[in-house]
Amino acid sequence: MRAKYLGRSDGALTLVLRKLGSLTLDERKKIGPVAQALKEKLEQLCDAQETQLLGLGGSVVDATLPSLAPETGHLHPVTLVRWQLEDLFTRMGFVIVDGPEVESEWYNFDALNMPSWHPARDMQDTFYTEVQSSKFKVQSDEVAAQRLVLRTQTSPVQIRAMEKYGVPLRCIVPGRVYRNEATDARHENTFWQIEGLMIDRDISLAHLISISKIFLRDLLGERIGIRVRPGYFPFTEPSIEMDITCQLCADQRRSSSRFAGPKSQTRLPKPVTGNGNIHGDKDAQFMYGVFSKDGYGGQVNADVKCPVCKGMGWLEFMGAGLMHPFVLKSGGVDPKKYSGFAFGFGLTRLAMMKYGIGDIRMMMSGNLRFLEQF
Ligand code: FA5
């Protein structure tokens, strides 16, 4: 507009103003003030328009440029790992089962052989609701069993799954759990677990260990070190705990001068005592019983400053065992005919290992700079 009407050489209004000199005095008096007023008005309009287009930042907005692509959401690291595992387990014939996050005390504790007086309850202190519900099936005579809790573990779904599907049964239960926990780099008050069950005739620890090997290697690679320790849970007998080599400081550990263990993650030392490798596994990936004191089996390596494993080199990631007859009975299964294994692992911790996340608290921080990396 400015160029068309006010352009110096051939703007329409400029030409009119330029011709004023060749006009008679009368014509000049008539046309001059009108043309001048029009020029001022046009300049004002052009200036106002220009200021608006320049915008606050002072840069010119080019309205012909294509617009910015809208930002799309993306998956949380826990979801990525959960989907990968769900895919793997369904290929092995497991079904995926869900359960409520607000659970009755019966399912969360009592049915799992943890009556109200059981000391093991203290390890999973939780949040109780003030509301009591009769909606949940309560099989215990105790009045207290009607309280509702934010579930502390995915294990209550063991009972629900047996009740709903009967046996034989192969299922996994991914879910969020809650604990009244002092938080640190590897402990959260809200985190994800995956429960796994396999009930059939003659199920043994060998099945449990074999399945664990498959999913850990699928997720974290062939070189992952796996350690099996004796453990205790009221709902499994025998019970084990499974640890994996900490993936956050693996390189640091191997290059440390104090590291007396094997340089590669796959070559774990033989246990000092115990029965060697479970089922003659030549990979020497599994250890159980008493561990050697060579810096790989339980000693802290002070050179390694790892916030997650604290220089231990190992991270506890799973509790498991053979299902206690009490639990099978709670779910309506005859323990004389059937046996089963059960495991429950920290999905959030596995996601930390897979993506090298050094603090579990990042997971629920809502920090976009963290989340946008996935
Ligand atoms: C249990 O929760 C048992 N229900 C597991 C189980 C299932 C045993 C079936 C036997 C049969 P535990 O409290 O150890 O056990 O927790 C299991 C895993 O959850 C731990 O190994 C760890 O990986 C993870 N976990 C436990 N507490 C936390 C926490 N505060 N923050 C993050 N992960 C945690």
Automatic annotation (TrEMBL):
It is an enzyme of class 6 (ligase). Transmembrane segments: none annotated. It catalyses: tRNA(Phe) + L-phenylalanine + ATP = L-phenylalanyl-tRNA(Phe) + AMP + diphosphate + H(+). One of its GO terms (biological process) is phenylalanyl-tRNA aminoacylation. SUPFAM superfamilies: Class II aaRS and biotin synthetases, tRNA-binding arm. CDD domains: PheRS_alpha_core (cd00496). One of its GO terms (molecular function) is tRNA binding. The keyword Cell membrane does not apply. InterPro entries: aa-tRNA-synth_II (IPR006195), aa-tRNA-synth_II/BPL/LPL (IPR045864), Phe-tRNA_ligase_II_N (IPR004188), Phenylalanyl-tRNA_Synthase (IPR002319), tRNA-bd_arm (IPR010978). It holds the Pfam family tRNA-synt_2d. The keyword Transmembrane helix does not apply. Keywords: Aminoacyl-tRNA synthetase, ATP-binding, Ligase, Nucleotide-binding, Protein biosynthesis. It comes from the Bacteria. GO terms for cellular component: cytoplasm. Residues 85-353 form the Aminoacyl-transfer RNA synthetases class-II family profile domain. Its EC number is 6.1.1.20. PANTHER family: PHENYLALANINE--TRNA LIGASE, MITOCHONDRIAL, PHENYLALANYL-TRNA SYNTHETASE. This is phenylalanine--tRNA ligase.
